[in-house]
Design goal:
Radius of gyration: 22 Å
Helix content: over 70%
Number of domains: 1
Order of helices and strands: HHHHHHHHHH
Length: 279
Amino acid sequence: MSATAALTDLLLLVLVSLTPALLYLAWVRQGERSRTENWGTLFWGFLYGALFATIVAGILELVLVALGTAVSQRYPGPEFIFLNGNSTAGEFFLVLVIAPFIEEALKASGVYARRASINRLADGPVIGASVGLGFGFFETFLYGVGAYLVGGLVAGIALILLRSVSSVLLHGSSTGMFGYGYARTKFGVPGPKSGGYYLLAVGMHATFNVLASVTVLLAVLGVTGVAAVVGAFVGLMAAILFAVTAIEHVRAVTQAADYPALAAPTPAASTARPPAPRR
């Protein structure tokens, strides 16, 4: 394959990965009916999720897996088997614990970095979704490149499209919910605060990963044949349904929060006094 053809394929993979994520972001943004968040803020959040959160999370996960594997090999007891990245238990620990906590923390840092742009309650979930969708875009692109190197352009595009209706939506919705929780904390809304919503995001992420890992779980349990195929299909459909429902919930939360009474008070409004009665 020529360099020109390879570059063309790479650009196509970028386009196929980027388009759904931006469309989802535009759809969530429209949930702010009275005043939509400006695109500059959202593009910044998107790039933060794509170029900072994704890369740093990947590095941290590799380091933790390497350390865990070294510990499990030095102390080869059953109590450390889940730390071994070369074991099935270690792989599940990475997918269900390490990845959700690290990735949601890195994406949450993007919301915190743009905290000055959260001027109303409804801004929180939209800015959070921008960071999460950026993360989901770049992660999906990297997976697509991996599939492309193994199986060609069709395999790369197929994997990207599959992740675009599942993983990308999950990342956008989990960080969108954290953004909502951060906005609640910022404006003093009674109820759960940022910490609770961070744990919610981690729980959403872990739940999705469980559903997406049904194929591996069935293999570990020794399920084969038709039952394995049916189980894998059901798990995949459940993961997609979970992700779609989650992003719809983020948009619904944005719409419900978009009321003037819940907007952040301006300094002038908060300090102004009512006019004195005429005598």
